[in-house]
TrEMBL record:
<dbReference type="InterPro" id="IPR035969">
    <property type="entry name" value="Rab-GAP_TBC_sf"/>
</dbReference>
<dbReference type="GO" id="GO:0005096">
    <property type="term" value="F:GTPase activator activity"/>
</dbReference>
<dbReference type="Pfam" id="PF00566">
    <property type="entry name" value="RabGAP-TBC"/>
</dbReference>
<feature type="domain" description="Rab-GAP TBC">
    <location>
        <begin position="28"/>
        <end position="247"/>
    </location>
</feature>
<dbReference type="InterPro" id="IPR000195">
    <property type="entry name" value="Rab-GAP-TBC_dom"/>
</dbReference>
<protein>
    <submittedName>
        <fullName>GYP1</fullName>
    </submittedName>
</protein>
């Protein structure tokens, strides 16, 4: 691993320097290294590189223990597993039905990969999550959070159980970071975004107040789905590179504020309905995400000077 140019300055001996890893990954991760880098950033992997294979095998064994070849509560209307195995946990049918509905809403190109319908992977991962996190269960939008990991990991024609296990491991660690905000309905980051926008761009903040545009209305989906619904996959993965390398809570607030400010000239000209429509399609507008990422880092620095 240390012989790889991307990791050469990050790995010393057999250990990963987490500080250097975060610094390097924040600037963007090459496609071929994202899976390993994400596992490190999320804490799926420990810093000892010699343990990577053992960790994967242990996670796979634990995942397999949660699967069974027949489960009574999976009715025929739900997705067919390619390997004939389904999560064996029992959860309420209403939660399962909501998960099923949300999976059907995912873009087909993120469900059918290399000709294989992977909807059952979403189902297994989310049902297992709901069973293992009863205080969270399932909240609408969590399905979107599986997308970047599944599309990234299932990147070729092989359809191994290890890949399914890897998707769950990454998603599970991501929830460790963000579930407190999901449970609180994003109350804290939304309030922090309001305060930071008021301090950073008072004119834009006052304009939103004048047209009666509540920032909760804008940012709830952003934070609940981590911008998955706003950007194309390539842009989203670049965003995840930086988000997973940083304090996620701080990053999301700074990115949201900087994103709004980057569109301020257009937004200042719009009334309520026009502004809402513009923001709901902000990923389709001509914005430079890399510049927004750079400026979001400077947001706190500028305010502390």
């Amino acid at each position: 691993m240390e012989q790889n140019p991307f990791f050469s300055e990050i790995v010393v001996g057999k250990y990963v320097n987490k500080r250097k890893l975060r610094s390097r990954c924040y600037e963007g991760i090459p496609d071929e290294h994202r899976v390993v880098a994400y596992k490190l950033l999320l804490g799926v992997y420990e810093t000892d590189t010699t343990l990577f294979q053992e960790i994967d095998e242990n996670n796979l064994n634990l995942y397999k223990m949660s699967l069974a070849s027949n489960t009574d509560y999976y009715s025929e209307e739900y997705f067919t597993s390619q390997n004939g195995l389904y999560v064996s946990y029992q959860i309420s049918t209403s939660v399962i039905h909501q998960i099923f509905i949300d999976i059907r809403r995912i873009d087909l190109k993120h469900r059918i990969i290399n000709g294989v319908d992977l909807s059952y992977v979403y189902m297994n991962v989310l049902v297992m999550t709901a069973a293992r996190r009863p205080y969270l269960e399932y909240v609408q939008g969590m399905c979107d959070l599986v997308v970047p990991f599944l599309v990234l990991i299932f990147d070729d024609n092989s359809n191994s159980m290890q890949k399914e296990s890897d998707v769950f491991a990454c998603f599970d660690k991501l929830l460790d970071r963000i579930q407190h905000n999901i449970i609180s309905m994003q109350e804290t980051p939304i309030e922090q975004t309001k305060n930071k926008l008021r301090r950073t761009d008072r004119k834009l903040y006052r304009h939103f107040k004048r047209i009666d545009l509540n920032l909760h209305f804008i940012t709830f989906r952003w934070f609940n789905c981590l911008f998955v619904r706003e950007f194309d996959l390539r842009t989203l993965l670049r965003l995840f590179d930086s988000m997973l390398s940083a304090d996620t809570d701080i990053f999301l607030v700074n990115f949201a504020v900087t994103l709004l400010i980057s569109c301020r000239n257009s937004l200042l000209e719009k009334d309520f309905s026009e502004a809402v429509s513009y923001i709901q399609n902000i990923g389709k507008s001509d914005i430079g995400v890399l510049e927004i990422l750079r400026n979001s880092v400077l947001l706190d620095i500028d305010q502390n000077m």
